[in-house]
C-alpha cells in the first residue's frame, strides 16, 4: 500500500496546474499575449489605434464572461455544452420580454429591469436543470448539457420564430453597450466588476473552496462532509447566470435578440478556459486563467483580422492553439 | 517443464534500489527464488514488499541493481515481457476488465486465434478445463464486474496460471477467500511446487506461512533484514525481525475508562448485505476494536454509522438519540468523524494543499466560515495548531498533500479531528501504509482522544494492532459479528477460532 | 407527440418492477421504437409509404454510420468531436477530386469515382490518425484533441471551397449510387448494414474488438495484460474518421455536390446522441453496435414523425434533448443498482 501510495505521490497534472505559485512556464501565456500583440502592432499600425484597443477590450469582455462561466463548471470537473444555446435563449427571451412590455405603458427602467430579470431567470433555470441532473442523478455533464443544448436551442428558435427580436428601449443599450464609465465602455466595466466578484467567490467562499475540492476528488470531499450536490448545483446556476449576463450584453451590442447569438460559444468558451489553464480533469482554473485565455484568443483573432487572414485560416490556428496549449500544460506538469 | 535441480535459483535479484519522488522504497535488496519452492515475503505494510514484487513482475523499473532470470540478465522489463518469460503475478489490485466476461478476461492479451479470427470454442474449452482443474466455481460467461471480490480473485489466479508460469507471484491471495477456497488454493500451490514452479508468496498470516513456506525473506523499511529457512522458525522471531523490536514495545498501553454509551447499533443491515443484523456498542472513554478479514463488513459497519452506506434495516443511536438522516455532513455536526482507509481515493484531495485538506470537514464551522465566507487567517491558525500537535513534517501548510509521505498524509487527515468539536472517532485501517514511527504517533493521537473522553472505534485487518489497542473487540465474519472479546479473552487464538466456528456453522447451515 | 408521451406515462404507472426487469433485459429503446412505429402507422398513412420509408432509411443509415465510429471511440474510452468536420471535409475532397479527375480523365466514370472515393476515405483516415496520435502518443484528452482537430478540419474544408458547394460530379455517382434504390431499399441502407455486420464481427471475433472493450473497461488491466493500448486507441480514431468519411461520401452522392455544411456541430452532436441513446457508455467499455443502429433509426423516425405530425421543427430539438437525458439517466440508475461498491 505504501509503495502504491509512494508511486502515486507523483503529482498529477491537475496538482501542478492547481498550484498558484508563479513559475517561468506559467508566464508563457501572458508572454504569448504580449508577443502576439507587439507582433501584430508592428505588422499593422491600426492595431495600436485607440478604436482597435477599445474593440479588443470589448471583445475580450464578452468572451471573458463566457469563459468564466465555462471555467466555473470545469473547476468542478464538469463541462457546459449548453452555454451557447443558453446564450441564444436568454438573448431572445430578454429581448422578447422588453419588446412585449415596451408596447404597454411601463417606463424604460421598469422594462429594462424586467428584461434583465427575465434573462437572469432563464439562465438560472438552465443552471438548475443542468446542476440537478449532474449533481443528483450523477449523469456525465457532457451528456446532460448535450441534452440541454438541444432543449435550449429548441426554445430559443421557438420563442423567436427564427427571426431577430427587436423593440428594446434605449436605456438597455446605454446600460449594457453604449454607455461609458471612466472612459471605459459599459461591457468592459461590467466584465471587470464581475471578474473581481468571481475571483473573490472562488477564493474566499465556502462555495469556491468546495468546488475546487470536488473537482480534485469528489469522493474525498463527500466523505469530509462537503455538500457536493448543493455546490455543483450552485456552480451550474452561477455559470448559467454569467452566461445570461454575457448574452444580454451581446444582445445590447447587436441591437436585437438573436436566436443564433450562441453559435459556437460553447466550444469557444471552452477553448478560452482551457488555453488559459483550466483543466478538464478538474480542480484548476480561476477568473485569472479565464481572462488570460480570452485575451489571448481575442488578440490573436483581432490581429489576424487586421492583417486580413481569412476566418477559415483562423479556425485552423485556433484548433492548433487549443491542442498546443494543453500539450504545453502537460509537458510542464511532466517536467516538475 | 522445469527440471532444474531445486538448489539453483531461477530468479536472482541483486542490490535492487527503487526510489519514488525522493522516498527510497527499496534499498540494496537481494532476493532469489528456486524452482519448486515457496518463498514467503514478510514484512509490515510499507516495508517494500509490493515494490519488490512489482519490480519482479516488470511494473516498475529498479533504479539500481541486477535482475537475472533463468541465467539471463533482464532489463527494461514490462509486465508483458515478464509474462512472456513466465513470470506471472496475482496482485491485490486486479488486472481485470470489469466489462468483459470471465473467459474473455482469462485470455486477455493472449487470445487464441485461427487465421486472425478469435477461436472462441478452443478458448472456452481450455478455460473450462482449467477452472475445473482448479475447482473454482466460476461461470465462464459472467461479467467480471458482477462477481464478488473472492470470485474476482479466482479469475485473477486462473488468469495467471493459464500462462504456465515458471515464477508465480501471489500477493496476499487469501485476503478475500473463504477458508474452503483458501484451502483449495494451498493444494494448488503444492501442486505447482511439485511441477517446479517457483512461488513468491506475500502474506503476513502466520498460519499460511507455517503451512506453505520453504524460505522466508523479511523486509523492513525497504531493506532486507534476513532470508531464512522456514523450518524451525518461531512466530515470535519473525515478528521481531519484521518490526525490529519486541512486539510489546509497538503498542502503547491505554487507560480505558468506559463511560456512557456513545454509539449504539441495533439489528443493522447495510451496504447491500455487507453488514448483516449487527448489534454494536461503543462507549466514550474506550477504544472499541473491530477485527475481521478483508471484506467481512467491518469497514462497511463504521461507514454505515458515519452515513456512507445505504442502511436496509436496524437502528443507529448516537448519544442515545436515534438517527434518521445519516450523511457525512450530519454526522460531523453531531460530533462523529470517520477517517477512511484509502487516503488517496477517499481521504484527501491530493492536488490541494495541506491547509485545504485539513479544514475540508470543517467548512461549516463558525471559526472558519461565516455566512459562506472563509476566514482564511483563522483557518490557517487553526490548521497550524492541529498540524503542530500531530507533528506534521514538514509543517508547511501550503504544500500539496500529494507530495507528503503516507504517514504525513494520515496526519493531515487526522488534523480534521482537531478542527471542530467531535466526540466519536471512527478509524478505518488507521496505520495502513505508514511507517513505524508515524504509527506510534497515530496511536498516541488515539490516546489523547481517549483522555479527553472521546469514543474511539478502530477497524483494522492487522490483528495484533486491534488486539493491543482495543478495550473491547468485536470480531466480524461474512457481515455478522461472530464474537465479542474483552480482557484476557482478547487473543489471536480466540479471534481465529471464532472464524472457524462461523465457517463450521455456515457449512452445517448450508448442509441442512 | 401524443403517442409516445402517452406511452411513457402509462408505463410509469404500470407495474414498475416487472417493467424494469423486462426493460433491463432488452433495454428501453426497442420498446420505444416499436411503440413509435406502430403509433405512426395508425395515425398517419403517409408514414408507411415507400417514399417516406426510403427517406427514413436514408437518414438513419447516414446517422448510423457516423454514430458507429463515435461508438467505437467511446467504447475505447475516448471521444470524437471531429466526426462532423470530417464528414464536411471528406465530402469536399471527394467532390473536388472528382471534378478534377473529370477533366483529366473524361468519360471514365469508374476511375473518377474511385479516385474521389479514395481521396475522401484517405482524408478520413488521416484526420483520424492525427486524432489518435494526439490521444495515444501525446496523451492529450480525446475531448481536447478532437476539439482542436474539429476546428482545423472544418477550417480546411471551408478554405478549399470558400463555403460554396462543389458541383461537377459524375452523373453515375449520383444516380446509380447516391440516389439509387436497390431492391426497393436506398443504397445507403446497404452500406450501413454492411458496416454494421463488419463491426459486429470485429467486436465478437477479432482481437481488435476485444481489446477496444478491454481498454475502455480498464486500461490499466489492458496494459498489464500486455495489450499495446496505443495502437488500438489510434485504430479506434482512424476507424471513426474512416466511417465519417463514408458518411461524407454518401451525403455527397445523395445531394450531388460537395458541401462544407454537411458536417459541423449538428452531425457531431447527433452522433454522440445516437451512440449514447443506443446504450454506449461515456465511461467506456460498454456498447453494442446493433443498439446504436436501432438508436439511429429511432432518432430518424422520431424526427420524421414530428415532421409528419406538423410539430414545429424548431421544437424538435427539445424532444431529442429530453430523450437523451432520460436515456442516460436511466442507464446511470441501472448501472448504480447492478454494480456494487
TrEMBL record, chain A:
It is found in: Cell membrane. The chain crosses the membrane at residues 20-42, 62-79, 110-129, 135-159, 171-202, 230-250, 306-328. CDD domains: TM_PBP1_transp_AraH_like (cd06579). It is a multi-pass membrane protein. Pfam families: BPD_transp_2 (PF02653). Keywords: Cell inner membrane, Cell membrane, Membrane, Transmembrane, Transmembrane helix, Transport. PANTHER family: ABC TRANSPORTER PERMEASE PROTEIN YPHD-RELATED (PTHR32196:SF21), ABC TRANSPORTER PERMEASE PROTEIN YPHD-RELATED-RELATED (PTHR32196). This is ABC transporter permease. It comes from Bradyrhizobium iriomotense.
Automatic annotation (TrEMBL), chain C:
This is ABC transporter permease. It is found in: Cell membrane. It is a multi-pass membrane protein. It comes from Bradyrhizobium iriomotense. The keyword Cell inner membrane applies. The chain crosses the membrane at residues 22-43, 63-90, 110-130, 142-165, 185-202, 234-256, 262-282, 289-309, 315-333. Keywords: Cell inner membrane, Cell membrane, Membrane, Transmembrane, Transmembrane helix, Transport. It comes from the Bacteria. The keyword Transmembrane helix applies. Pfam families: BPD_transp_2. InterPro entries: ABC_transp_permease. CDD domains: TM_PBP1_transp_AraH_like.
Amino acid at each position: 500500500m505504501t509503495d502504491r501510495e509512494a508511486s502515486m505521490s507523483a503529482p498529477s497534472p491537475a496538482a501542478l496546474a492547481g498550484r498558484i505559485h508563479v513559475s517561468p512556464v506559467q508566464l508563457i501565456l501572458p508572454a504569448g499575449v504580449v508577443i502576439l500583440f507587439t507582433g501584430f502592432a508592428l505588422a499593422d499600425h491600426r492595431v495600436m489605434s485607440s478604436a482597435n484597443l477599445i474593440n479588443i477590450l470589448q471583445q475580450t469582455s464578452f468572451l471573458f464572461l463566457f469563459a468564466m462561466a465555462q471555467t466555473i463548471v470545469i473547476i468542478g470537473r464538469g463541462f457546459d455544452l449548453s452555454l451557447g444555446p443558453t446564450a441564444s435563449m436568454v438573448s431572445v427571451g430578454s429581448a422578447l420580454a422588453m419588446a412585449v412590455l415596451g408596447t404597454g405603458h411601463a417606463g424604460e427602467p421598469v422594462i429594462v429591469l424586467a428584461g434583465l430579470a427575465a434573462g437572469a431567470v432563464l439562465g438560472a433555470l438552465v443552471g438548475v436543470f443542468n446542476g440537478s441532473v449532474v449533481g443528483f442523478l450523477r449523469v456525465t455533464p457532457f451528456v446532460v448539457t448535450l441534452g440541454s443544448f438541444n432543449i435550449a436551442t429548441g426554445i430559443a428558435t421557438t420563442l423567436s420564430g427564427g427571426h431577430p427580436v427587436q423593440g428594446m428601449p434605449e436605456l438597455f443599450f446605454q446600460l449594457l453597450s453604449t454607455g461609458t464609465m471612466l472612459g471605459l465602455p459599459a461591457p468592459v466595466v461590467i466584465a471587470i466588476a464581475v471578474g473581481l466578484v468571481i475571483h473573490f467567490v472562488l477564493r474566499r467562499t465556502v462555495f469556491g473552496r468546495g468546488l475546487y475540492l470536488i473537482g480534485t476528488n469528489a469522493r474525498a470531499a463527500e466523505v469530509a462532509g462537503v455538500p457536493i450536490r448543493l455546490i455543483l448545483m450552485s456552480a451550474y446556476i452561477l455559470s448559467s447566470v454569467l452566461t445570461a449576463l454575457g448574452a444580454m450584453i451581446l444582445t445590447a451590442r447587436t441591437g436585437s435578440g438573436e436566436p443564433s447569438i450562441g453559435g459556437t460559444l460553447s466550444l469557444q468558451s471552452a477553448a478560452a478556459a482551457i488555453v488559459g489553464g483550466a483543466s478538464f480533469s478538474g480542480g484548476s482554473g480561476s477568473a485569472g486563467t479565464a481572462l488570460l485565455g480570452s485575451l489571448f484568443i481575442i488578440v490573436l483573432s483581432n490581429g489576424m483580422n487586421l492583417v486580413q487572414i481569412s476566418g477559415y485560416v483562423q479556425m485552423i490556428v485556433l484548433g492548433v492553439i487549443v491542442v498546443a496549449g494543453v500539450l504545453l500544460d502537460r509537458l510542464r506538469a511532466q517536467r516538475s | 517443464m522445469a527440471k532444474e535441480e531445486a538448489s539453483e535459483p531461477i530468479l536472482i535479484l541483486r542490490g535492487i534500489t527503487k526510489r519514488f519522488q525522493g522516498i527510497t522504497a527499496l534499498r540494496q535488496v537481494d532476493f532469489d527464488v528456486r524452482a519448486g519452492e515457496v518463498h514467503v515475503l514478510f514484512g509490515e505494510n510499507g516495508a517494500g514488499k509490493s515494490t519488490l514484487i512489482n519490480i519482479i513482475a516488470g511494473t516498475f523499473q529498479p533504479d539500481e541493481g541486477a535482475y537475472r532470470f533463468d541465467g539471463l540478465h533482464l532489463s527494461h522489463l514490462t509486465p508483458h515481457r515478464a509474462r512472456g518469460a513466465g513470470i506471472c503475478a496475482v496482485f491485490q489490485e486486479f488486472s481485470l476488465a470489469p466489462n468483459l466476461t470471465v473467459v474473455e478476461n482469462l485470455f486477455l492479451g493472449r487470445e487464441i486465434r485461427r487465421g486472425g479470427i478469435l477461436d472462441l470454442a478452443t478458448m472456452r474449452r481450455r478455460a473450462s478445463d482449467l477452472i475445473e482443474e482448479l475447482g473454482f466455481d466460476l461461470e465462464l460467461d459472467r461479467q467480471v464486474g458482477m462477481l464478488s471480490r473472492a470470485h474476482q480473485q479466482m479469475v485473477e489466479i486462473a488468469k495467471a496460471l493459464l500462462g504456465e508460469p515458471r515464477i508465480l507471484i501471489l500477493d496476499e491471495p487469501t485476503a478475500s477467500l473463504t477458508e474452503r477456497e483458501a484451502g483449495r488454493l494451498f493444494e494448488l500451490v503444492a501442486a505447482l511446487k511439485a511441477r517446479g514452479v517457483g512461488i513468491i508468496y506475500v502474506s503476513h498470516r502466520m498460519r499460511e506461512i507455517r503451512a506453505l513456506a520453504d524460505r522466508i525473506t523479511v523486509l523492513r523499511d525497504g531493506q532486507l533484514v534476513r532470508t531464512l529457512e522456514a523450518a524451525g522458525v518461531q512466530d515470535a522471531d519473525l515478528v521481531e525481525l519484521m518490526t525490529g523490536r519486541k512486539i510489546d514495545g509497538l503498542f502503547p498501553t491505554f487507560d480505558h475508562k468506559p463511560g456512557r454509551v456513545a454509539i449504539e447499533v441495533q439489528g443493522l443491515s447495510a451496504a447491500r448485505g455487507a453488514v448483516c443484523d449487527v448489534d454494536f456498542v461503543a462507549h466514550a472513554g474506550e477504544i472499541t476494536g473491530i477485527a475481521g478479514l478483508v471484506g467481512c463488513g467491518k469497514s462497511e459497519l463504521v461507514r454505515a454509522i458515519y452515513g456512507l452506506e445505504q442502511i436496509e434495516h436496524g437502528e443507529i443511536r448516537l448519544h442515545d438519540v436515534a438517527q434518521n438522516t445519516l450523511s457525512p455532513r450530519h454526522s460531523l455536526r453531531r460530533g462523529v468523524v470517520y477517517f477512511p482507509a484509502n487516503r488517496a481515493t477517499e481521504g484527501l484531495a491530493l492536488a490541494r494543499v495541506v491547509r485545504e485538506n485539513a479544514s475540508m470537514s470543517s467548512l461549516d464551522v463558525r471559526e472558519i466560515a461565516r455566512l459562506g465566507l472563509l476566514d482564511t487567517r483563522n483557518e490557517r491558525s487553526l490548521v497550524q495548531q492541529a498540524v503542530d500537535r500531530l507533528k506534521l513534517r514538514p509543517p508547511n501548510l501550503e504544500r500539496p498533500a500529494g507530495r507528503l509521505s503516507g504517514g504525513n498524509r494520515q496526519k493531515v487527515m487526522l488534523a480534521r479531528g482537531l478542527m471542530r468539536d467531535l466526540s466519536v472517532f471512527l478509524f478505518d485501517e488507521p496505520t495502513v501504509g505508514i511507517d513505524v514511527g508515524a504509527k506510534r504517533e497515530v496511536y498516541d493521537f488515539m490516546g489523547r482522544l481517549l483522555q479527553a473522553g472521546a469514543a474511539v472505534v478502530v477497524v483494522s485487518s492487522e490483528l495484533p494492532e486491534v488486539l493491543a489497542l482495543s478495550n473491547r473487540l468485536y470480531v466480524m465474519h461474512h457481515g455478522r459479528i461472530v464474537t465479542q472479546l474483552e480482557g484476557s479473552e482478547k487473543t489471536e487464538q480466540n479471534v481465529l477460532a471464532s472464524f472457524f466456528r462461523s465457517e463450521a456453522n455456515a457449512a452445517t447451515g448450508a448442509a441442512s | 407527440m401524443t403517442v409516445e408521451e402517452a406511452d411513457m406515462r402509462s408505463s410509469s404507472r404500470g407495474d414498475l418492477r416487472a417493467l424494469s426487469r423486462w426493460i433491463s433485459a432488452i433495454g428501453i429503446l426497442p420498446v420505444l421504437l416499436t411503440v413509435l412505429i406502430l403509433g405512426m402507422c395508425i395515425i398517419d398513412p403517409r408514414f408507411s409509404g415507400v417514399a417516406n420509408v426510403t427517406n427514413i432509411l436514408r437518414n438513419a443509415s447516414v446517422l448510423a454510420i457516423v454514430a458507429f465510429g463515435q461508438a467505437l471511440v467511446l467504447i475505447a474510452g475516448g471521444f470524437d468531436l471531429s466526426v462532423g468536420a470530417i464528414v464536411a471535409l471528406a465530402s469536399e475532397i471527394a467532390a473536388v477530386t472528382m471534378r478534377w479527375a473529370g477533366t483529366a480523365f473524361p468519360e471514365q466514370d469508374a476511375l473518377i469515382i474511385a479516385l474521389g472515393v479514395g481521396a475522401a476515405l484517405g482524408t478520413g483516415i488521416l484526420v483520424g490518425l492525427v486524432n489518435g496520435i494526439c490521444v495515444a502518443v501525446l496523451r492529450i484528452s480525446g475531448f481536447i484533441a478532437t476539439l482542436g482537430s474539429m476546428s482545423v478540419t472544418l477550417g480546411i474544408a471551408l478554405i478549399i471551397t470558400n463555403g460554396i458547394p462543389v458541383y461537377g460530379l459524375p452523373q453515375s455517382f449520383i444516380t446509380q449510387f447516391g440516389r439509387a434504390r436497390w431492391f426497393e431499399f436506398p443504397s445507403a441502407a446497404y452500406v450501413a448494414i454492411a458496416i454494421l455486420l463488419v463491426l459486429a464481427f470485429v467486436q465478437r471475433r477479432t482481437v481488435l474488438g476485444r481489446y477496444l472493450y478491454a481498454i475502455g473497461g480498464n486500461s490499466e488491466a489492458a496494459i498489464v495484460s500486455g495489450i499495446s493500448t496505443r495502437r488500438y486507441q489510434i485504430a479506434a480514431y482512424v476507424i471513426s474518421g474512416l466511417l465519417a468519411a463514408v458518411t461524407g461520401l454518401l451525403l455527397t452522392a445523395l445531394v450531388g455536390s460537395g458541401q462544407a455544411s454537411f458536417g459541423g456541430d449538428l452531425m457531431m452532436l447527433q452522433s454522440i446522441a445516437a451512440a449514447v441513446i443506443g446504450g454506449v457508455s461515456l465511461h467506456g467499455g460498454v456498447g453494442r453496435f446493433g443498439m446504436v443502429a436501432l438508436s439511429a433509426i429511432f432518432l430518424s423516425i422520431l424526427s420524421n414523425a414530428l415532421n409528419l405530425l406538423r410539430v414545429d421543427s424548431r421544437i424538435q430539438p427539445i424532444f431529442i434533448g429530453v430523450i437523451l437525458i432520460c436515456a442516460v439517466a436511466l442507464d446511470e440508475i441501472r448501472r448504480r443498482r447492478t454494480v456494487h461498491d
